[in-house]
Design a protein that fits this description.
The chain has 10 helices and 8 strands.
Length: about 270
Amino acid sequence: MAKTLTRPLLLIGCGKMGGAMLDGWLGSGVAAGGVHIVDPAGAAPFRGRDGVSVHESVETLPDDLAPEVVVLAVKPQQMDGVLGALARFAGPDCLFVSIAAGKTIGYFETHLGETAAVVRAMPNTPAAIGRGITVCAPNARCSAAQTALAEQLLRAVGEAETVRDEGLIDAVTALSGGGPAYTFLLIECMAQAGVAAGLPEELSAKLALHTVAGAGQLALESDEEPAQLRRNVTSPGGTTQEALAVLMREPGGLAPLMEEAVAAATRRSRELGG
């Protein structure tokens, strides 16, 4: 059952991701207990909205504030500067949700204390249009209700899944966190290949963009697996089969190249996490 917050939600950072989530929370009514934002510049579009208060810094938050949820949406390098003033909220009755890449649950427990209920989440940039997917990992202090609440808040910008093994977040970061960039590169490469084959640049760019967007939507809405959808387009001896013979060749085809790329990103995520 969807929950409505009865106490305030505190949002630290209101950039593109934080703002997109806030739009969803305000639209769904989940933040009925009010929202406090620490980010004067980013919060500009939300000033004057019912139940929304904007603060200059964490140090200027009201002394009697008792948030039900604190969402940490600042850049990882800014986290050290805000956590000290937020530690007073830590405890079993306040849920901390972080979307900062590379910041582990252990990091937050060190700064907030071992009693803090923490969910580490990794969204991706399509969240800005409500089409993201986020994977989150709760710590041992999170109740089942708090974990469900975290999922509900994250679904304001798309899909959300929970894993119990925080170590999986590094692979999530590599696959879905970086995945939009890989897809954008695919669009670029397809457009360039079209130009090389003789298409006008503008037409080739439009064909590549709409082909990738349309294929993604078809994959989402179809009951068939992507492999079957691929076979549906591939006529024996036809043009698509010729292209796939290049993309699927061994070694050096797309599959091993993508596996290598995701593995490299996973390793880097682990390095950044300390």
